[in-house]
Amino acid sequence: MVGGGGGAMIARWFLAGVLLLAGILKLRDPAGFADGLASFQLLPSGLIVPLALGVPLFEILTAFALASRRFRSAGSLSACLLTAAFTGFYAWAAIRGLDVNCACFGSSPIFRVSAAGGLLRAAALLALALWVDARLRRRKGPDQAG
Amino acid sequence: MQRHPSLIRDATTLLVAFAACLAAGLLLNDLRPEPLDLSYQTRGERLQNTDEVIPEVTFVEARRALAGGKPVFVDAREPDFFEEGHIAGAVNLPASEALAGGFAALPDDRRIPLIVYCSGGDCEDSLIVAAALRQSGFTDVSVFSGGWDEWSAGEGAQ
Q: Which stretches of B32-143 are DSSP H helices?
């Protein structure tokens, strides 16, 4: 039987695992992730490559922060921001009817999803990240969430 | 209202961490065997700018290869042109599909000889497709630069 705390812990570790996997797969293929970012037609071209190189490292760092005791609240906030950004990107693509491939989990066809599937996946991860963040901050109390 | 200090502290931590990750990403890029150009290029542009030399075959060599039956001919033109006429047994793989990694129509054996062609003359799709195939692990890729124009003229003259 998993209680509320156990559920939050499982969710936090699940998020950490997803972000670690996504970061490692993107790190192996930054060019594919750059193509994915460019497919959204949202970012200026000068930002695409620096973000394609830096975001995977940030995801990996977020995963470790989520798994740590000291930085878990910063990690959950980071997970919220990352998943919110991807949700926003996919929502933008859906509104504009763009055929996008985020390459969020590398360029392997195994992880390739449609724009609608990507939006659902990102939104689900955002909901989970928000829940984990809210649980962490409520549990730790004001100014002790770290 | 008491939550603000921890949120502000976490947000500050994230800003510093994000900046550090961007800097580390740029540094790691320099250590890669083939670093990415910081000004974004599409995959097609990257493939065209590669220094890799892809061997070319002549009409006679292509014809001999077809008679030998071993290589697979890859037609890099769009499907409409492919339907109008192509080298016997050729597989249609337009550049857009190759750039998206759509190699399902090709054999699984990455060592099989492949000869890529497009219309001929100045067309670049055969080079783009050939470079994409090489990047995907196909080891024996060459280009028939005379393309369909030379092939259809040559075969018609037989």
A: 43-48, 59-68, 79-84, 95-99, 125-135
